[in-house]
Amino acid sequence: MRNQLSTLHKMRIAKIIHNHATRVRAVARRIRKFPNPEATAALAGPKFITRLALVILLLTSGSAVAIGAAAVKPNILLILADDVGWSDVGCYGSEIQTPNLDSLAKAGVKFTQFYNCARCCPSRATLLTGLYPQQAGVGNMTDDQGPARPGYRGTLQPDCVTLAEVLKPAGYGTYMVGKWHLRNQSDVKPTDRGFDEFYGMLGGYNSCWDENPYYTRWPKNRTPRTYTSAKNGRPGTFYSTDAFADYSLDFMAQARSEKKPFFLYLAFNAAHFPLHAPEKDIEKYEQLYFEKGWDVVRAERLAREKNLGLVPPDLALTPRSPVPAKSFAKSSPYAGKENPAWNSLPEDRRRDLARRMAVYAAMVDHMDQAIGRVVNDLKQHGDFDNTLILFLSDNGACWEWDPLGFDGSSGPHNELHTGETLKKMGGPESYLSYGSGWANACNTPWRYYKHFDFEGGTRTPFIVHWPAGMKAENEISAQIGHLIDLMPTLLEVAGASYPAERNGVKIQPMEGRSLVPAFANQPVVRAAPLFFEHDGSRAVRDGRWKLVSLVGDAWELYDMEADPAEMHNLITQLPDQAHTMMAAWNAWAKRCHVDATTNPFGHGGAEAHEPANVSPQIANHPLVIRCDVTTDARSGVVLAQGGREYGYALHLSEGRPVFSVRIARQLFAVKSTKVVSGHFSLEARLEKDGKMKLFVNGTLAATGQASGLIPTQPLDDLTVGEDEKSAVGDYAAPNPLNGKVDNVKITAE
Ligand SMILES: [Ca+2]
Ligand SMILES: [Ca+2]
Fold it and tell me: Which end of the chain, C or N, has fewer beta carbons within 10 A?
């Protein structure tokens, strides 16, 4: 790949987001008023549910008593999947084999209307704190958007507590395994927020095959397990999902030896990109997806969902979801159009896409195998009955960034794999996503995807299993619930209390309601609607009604009982209902630091990027960076791409040019011996073996050695004359240069 960038401009792309609420209200006043339908109570669900034979044997009458029947505090196993869609688990209609989750559901409860927060970081913040993401300070990703936007600081704020922090004083051993994704520059780790032990990935996503440097053990003085990483394209003994199961068993053993009940937060990175899975699991699915394609898979999943009683029997298959014209997708020929029909694609493309989906399915399948190992361990030690097991996903399936998926790093680059190279997809040398066509299928029957507040983004499978605390037989609950409910639920089952303050700072009150009554098929009474905002998308769910908008778009209103797939917008028919919900959303936004209208970064943060023509794709490429500089300044950034984790920068320090490279947080810098000023040219090279060279006016001025090429596409875009957001080099960002930079040319070979 050759990727050149010769003209540079400022990266900030101002986004003007129109809030149509005012206009809608004006229209509303001109329309004849319809009677305002009675808002239904939280327990009201689709009528078809009542046709199911539900066998619920309470230990005694009333859920509180049922809880009390568990004389010993239950263990709590909270399992979170990553980017797994609503219909990806077998018991939610999938063809993917998940026998372990299916058997938990068979002896437990499946919720059909449970919500997350549409994206990795906000969902994790809410799950752990019981607050809306913006209240916890993580309304977007891990970028710190500054004190003017307190809802978007990128890490948990001082005025909230985590599940681990509340369960620990109640006598629990608190353990986390898996993906954290809740740290910005403050670098807060799980062990800083109440967890006794941690093993996993502090960041958002990376290889499932290479342990180093992406997976770490905290506290630092613990002896980690030893695995071998992939070599020469062949897997070693490390595969993240298996390692997570290993450490889960270790931590459960630790709790037993300390005679404590445990809280284990097991946050898989399956099935987030890069899609990586063992070949034997991929093989189960490759031919199946080639033969069926996403259109047949969508139809079959919907049929199974109807048979399982998860959706109304008359629900029609929605049209294929659109490819949002957003971020990298802006340069895609599919942007703004529906996903293409499977049969419209040529055979080689269908083979490539079938393999992508097979790797994804294999990740889900293998996650289920790992859950099976944990469940078996509980059974072997007699802990299975009194362990409350909860399973859900942090957001809907991921569309990034068009129907063909990407390769190499999150971005617009796609490779059509054919013949023998197909077999390498999913292995250690591959880095791929499966795209919006398959994501659409994984969210069947809902519309849209991860990022969005339509149901495809926010509705999660939710399975609850706890033989000692509730007796349920393949029960389905249509009660509406949300991640905010986990905090009060787990407090209740653990007999723990919500503190008034943490480290002397007053804590915000919980937003959710305990789901314990729902475990006993009793209503959860909810005083307020549920609210959503992410990346400017917005939603309100209030009983049967849902108000929702795409970013910068007008509100739409849906009757979720009659139209759960959000197909028939009632906003003009029911203006009063819409108006009431808009006002509620606005009041919530004001109360909870929610700001959907402006984003100083102009994009969605750590997982999002500006359009493809802005920053070169540099992952694993030798680099040649050239430019002309005119300045009398002694310090400042000439250019930078990336930040504190990965990237490169050319900058001046005490009048001397410096070439800095950052790889997995480690800084490699070479500094010219000569002082420069006035007009001069710079050229920096990062070579295949990690050798660094810096030329000033065509003369070699410094050499050094980095650990290799930059292995991943940096999160921060290329900026000239300063280093936006986090700093690559040994200076405080943005460190602007007072001068002129011309003729920037970056070659990624
Ligand atoms: Ca996710
Ligand atoms: Ca930066």
Answer: C
Q: How far apart are CA 277 and CA 270, in angstroms?
A: 9
d(CA 211, CA 226): 10
Report the separation in Å between the CA atom of 610 and the middle of ligand 2, taken as the mean of its atom positions.
Answer: 13
Residues labelled catalytic: 120, 181
Is residue 677 within 8 A of residue 696, CB to CB? The reply is: no
Q: Is residue 94 scored above 50 in pLDDT? A: yes
How many whole angstroms from 472 Cα to the centroid of ligand 2?
52
Q: How far is it, in rounded angstroms, from Cα 46 to Cα 84?
A: 24
Q: Which residues lie below 8 Å from residue 372, measured CB to CB, with a gap of 6+? A: 99, 100
Residue 51 scores a pLDDT above 70: no
pLDDT at 312 over 50: yes
Nearest-angstrom CA–CA distance, 200 and 267: 9
Residue ranges of alpha helices (H) inside 191-346 are 240-257, 279-282, 286-308
Which two three-digit tokens encode residue 707?
């650990």
- Nearest in space to 182 (alpha carbons), one of 261, 128, 235: 128
Q: Which two tokens stand for residue 561?
A: 């009982």
Residue in 350, 351, 362, 348 with CA at minimum distance from that of residue 427: 362
CATH class of 623-748: mainly beta
Mean pLDDT of the region 444-457: 98
Average pLDDT in the 265-290 region?
98
- Nearest ligand by distance to the CA of 393: 1
Nearest ligand by distance to the CA of 392: 1
Task: Specify the pLDDT at position 62.
Answer: 32
Q: Tell me whether residue 20 is exposed, middle or buried, using C-beta atoms within 10 angstroms of its C-beta: 0 to 12, 13 to 18, 19 or more.
A: middle
Query: Above 50 in pLDDT, residue 35?
Result: no
Give the ligand whose atoms come closest to the C-alpha of residue 269.
1
Mean pLDDT in residue range 378-395: 98
Output the CA 86–ligand 1 centroid distance in Å. 13
**What average pLDDT score do residues 623-645 get?**
92
Q: What is the CATH number of domain 75-117+128-134+158-470?
A: 3.40.720.10
Q: How far is the CA of 498 from the centre of ligand 2 (A)?
A: 39
Distance CA 225, CA 243 (A): 9
pLDDT of 40: 31
- With b meaning 16 or more CB within 10 Å and e meaning fewer, what string describes 221-249? eeeeeebeebeeeebeebbbbbbbbbbbb
Q: Where are the domains of the chain?
A: 6-70, 75-117+128-134+158-470, 530-591, 623-748
Share of the chain above pLDDT 70, in %: 88
Ligand 2 centre distance from Cα of residue 132 (Å): 28
